[in-house]
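Incident log entry.

Two folding requests arrived from the same account within the same minute. Monitoring flagged them as a possible duplicate submission, but the sequences differ. Recording both here for audit purposes.

Request one:
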Amino acid sequence: MDREDGESISRLLRAWRGRIDPRTVRELRGVLPRPGRRLSQKHVARMTGVSEGWYRALEAGRRQDFSESFLLRVAEALRLSEAETLTLFLAVCGRRPPERGHAEEDLPRGVKALLEQQVSYPAYLSDVAWNIVASNALMGEWFPWVHRPRPNLMRWALLHPEAREQMLDWEDSCARVYLAMLRVAANSDPGNEELRGLVHEILDADADCRRIWAQEYDVVEHRDGHVFRLRLPYHGNAEIRVTSHVLLPIQRTDLRFVFITPVDGWAGV
């Protein structure tokens, strides 16, 4: 974790700790240091529920098995910004901090505007568990299920009977790909209870999905560029070929911005 250029995480942690006035810390009422003394390692350990030695190891840059929950408590105790919290996580464990839950009204203005202004093709935002966070008007016209309570792409595509009618060549073009995506997501974030529960729910509910899961070992990260065939009531049940495009908003890396475009210049939207 340490670097020789003076910008080690140890130096940053000491600086972040040093800017806090202990008198403003509610948890330290009754144990405040003498006037003029800064927040100590012992105080931060007390605030985060660990031993002084454990916190000292973090600030000294010694590699330990520091949990995400501990690092989040440190970030809260030291009043770190999102950028500072990201720096702490990357320096200590080499990964980003877990994303906090967000409501649709918390979407970055630019991302929401881009979604709403996309009037040529269906577009939507989904989170890491494929919950539909927001969608444009055309997405709702092509796929009315996005307006149902708590819409989830995986549940619809893999469990709902209408998906097998509307997504042609369902097993090879849809089920195998989506299950391969679930396999990547579940292994990339094994502590995500929602993802783990989604996998169990789908496998428990559908025999075809269980068979494919047991037989296949493919892994797919996303459907960007994937071509698939649809037969939707919106198009009079005529067969169409489309491809999906997946973007990751820099302000919300827990979201996928997905839009669907026609293949071969089809423009019958």
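Request two (distinct sequence, not a duplicate):
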Amino acid sequence: MKGQEWYQQETVVESYEDKRFSRGGGRLTDRLEKEAVGEALAPVEGRKILEIACGTGRFSVMLAQQGADVVGLDISAPMLGEGRRKARQAGVDDHLEFLRGDAARLPFPDDHFDSVFAIRFFHLVDEPKRYLRELARVSSDQVVFETYNRFSGRSLYNWALPMGSRLYSRREVDGMLAAADLRLTDETHEFVVPFGLYRKLPGGVAKAFRKLEEGIDRTPLGDSLASISYWSATVE
């Protein structure tokens, strides 16, 4: 998996959220991503939810605050340590457990969770069908995941990244869903400007770009230009 060693470095974790989500355009993308996850999984109160590649717990803590019982799984011990700190600080550590593990071999029985989701994950994997099947195995109801789109501005942005990202066509996503015995129930397409570029922008500039994107979203070109897609599916 791409970036496996990089995400486990203590120095990366120390600056991870500060560089990406705490200022300017990064704060905007953090809010938009949380809105997308919340809408895809709602209602969450009383549900058992597993987050794959939970990192420092951005989404897991939010869902626990909304009344879900959450398990966050990640391969990085330093990331999980930061997640536990945030859960304690938010007062939700009784509804949120963080585990270190491999998403290709989840340590849970079949149908163990109501919902399973993975955000900022599938762009790193080398065998997406294998991973999606494993997510579907431990879910009794819903699987939500995100992909970076091949025919979008993300293709140009990828050239500037040290690790690059796996990009997906719609045909590839349909093949993944079929291989995992999942039925697509909803889809949302976002970010004409890749959110990696958003976080480099001052807040006011990022908001102006966002208004422009919202205008494009209302046109027939909106979905086809989006750099990211959120997929919600049910287990067959």
